[in-house]
Amino acid sequence: METLEAAAASGEAWPTVLRTFFVDGTRLVLGWDRAKSEPEMLATLATDRDSARAIRAPSPGPPIDRAGLRAALERAARFCTEHGLHLLSFEGEGPGEEPLGERRWFLAVG
């Protein structure tokens, strides 16, 4: 995954977001039942020193804001699509459920 490594080395946020929430060691974290909400991701990134260092925040404070997270997730989704994976999102408790007002993201294959 040369592109992933190069993007991470240049300080882009999307590789860190992808690795932090959708990769567990050498395994992918798959399924809508393992979806993460954007507020949950922001909270994790704000307290995870390794993630903050990897993203290389330009100023003190959280390493990434909501708009930055959404942009990172959208770029990660493009990367996943290029590599036969699907980083998808929905609003609600699960697909087809009532919206909660927060977007949840999950990884799928197929």
Outline the structure in words.
- The chain is α+β, with helices and mostly antiparallel strands.
- It has helices at residues 2-9, 14-22, 38-47, 49-55, 66-82, and strands at 23-24, 27-28, 36-37, 85-91, 103-109.
- The chain has a three-stranded antiparallel sheet with strand order 3-5-4. The chain has a two-stranded antiparallel sheet with strand order 1-2.
- A hairpin with a 2-residue loop joins β1 (23-24) and β2 (27-28).
- 25% of the residues are buried.
Short structural description:
Helix content is 46%, strand content 18%. By secondary structure, it is α+β, with helices and mostly antiparallel strands.
Features:
single chain, 110 residues, alpha+beta, 3-stranded antiparallel beta sheet, two-stranded antiparallel ribbon, 5 helices, 5 strands, 46% helix, globular
Main sheet: which strands, in order across?
A: 3-5-4
Report the mean per-residue pLDDT as an integer. 83
Low-confidence stretches: none
Quantity of strands, as a count:
5
Query: Radius of gyration, rounded?
Result: 14 Å
Q: What is the 3D shape?
A: globular
Helix count from the secondary structure assignment: 5
Class derived from helix and strand content: alpha+beta
- Strand % is 15-25%
- Main beta sheet: strand number and arrangement? 3 strands, antiparallel
Helix content: 40-55%
Separation of the first and last Cα atoms: 19 Å
Instruction: Encode the helix/strand succession as letters.
Output: HHEEEHHHEE
